[in-house]
Fold this protein.
Amino acid sequence: MLTSGIGCTPPAALELASYSDSVAGAGGIGNAWESEIYAKGRQINRWPFSDVVADVTRLTAGLDRSKLAVLELGCGTGNNIWFFLDCGFEVCGIDIAPTAIALASDYVRSFGFSEADLRVGDIAGLPWESDSFDFVVDRGVLSQLTLDDVARTITEVFRVLKPGGRFLSYDLFGWNNSGRQFGVEVSPRSYANFSGGRLFGKSPRTTFFDRELISEMWRPLRVVDLVRHQVVKGEAEDVDEYYTVQAVKD
C-alpha cells in the first residue's frame, strides 16, 4: 500500500473573478475551475482525503476489491484515484476541467497505474451505464453546484450505482458555516463573491446544506449515516460546519 503520510496539500488562495451568469451552471463553474484554478496550478492535491481512506477501507474489509468498481465525482488531479487503484479497485473518475483530468492521468501513471478510466464531463450527466458501480464518492463537489444540479447529480448517482451500492459524500458545507455571511446569495442556498471569512477565494460558488435538505434531496437513495461536524476555530464566531453522508441504493 502507498497510504502512509495521508493528508492534503493546503489549497492556495484564489484570485477569482466575480460571480456572474457565465458561471451560473455546472458548465460555467467548470470553466472557472479550469481557467482560474487548475490551469494556474492551484488546488493540486496529492494525498488522498483521510476520511475517504478510512471509510472505503472499513467498508471493503475482507472483500475482493478487484471485483468492486469505484467512481469519483469531481476527481480533480487524482489524489483519491491513486489510492483506489492501490487498493485494487476498478476505478473511474470524472471532472469537468480538462486540465484536472490531464494532471490526474499523469499522476496515476507516475505510480505505475494505467487502468483508471478518467473522463472529462458533467457529473449531472454521467457517461456510464446504469448499475455500474459499487461506490460513488464525492468529496466537496456537490457544495459547488446549484440545488438543481445537485438533484440531477443524485439522480445520476442512483442510476449508475449497483443495487446495494453506496454513495459517500464529504464536505457538504453547513448552513451555519460562519463563512456564509461574507457571501452574496446568487441562487437558492448558493453564495458567491465572498468578501472575507474562511471561504474567501476558495471557490466560484458554495452551496450550503442542513440535515433536512440532505434528507430530502438524497432520495431515492436511503441515507444510512448523516454526520454533522462543527468546529469552532479561534473566536466563537468562526464556525466551520459541514456534513458527511453515506447513502445506499436499495
Observations:
- The mean pLDDT is 86.
- The helical segments are 26-37, 50-59, 81-87, 98-110, 147-160, 211-217.
- The chain has one domain: 21-248.
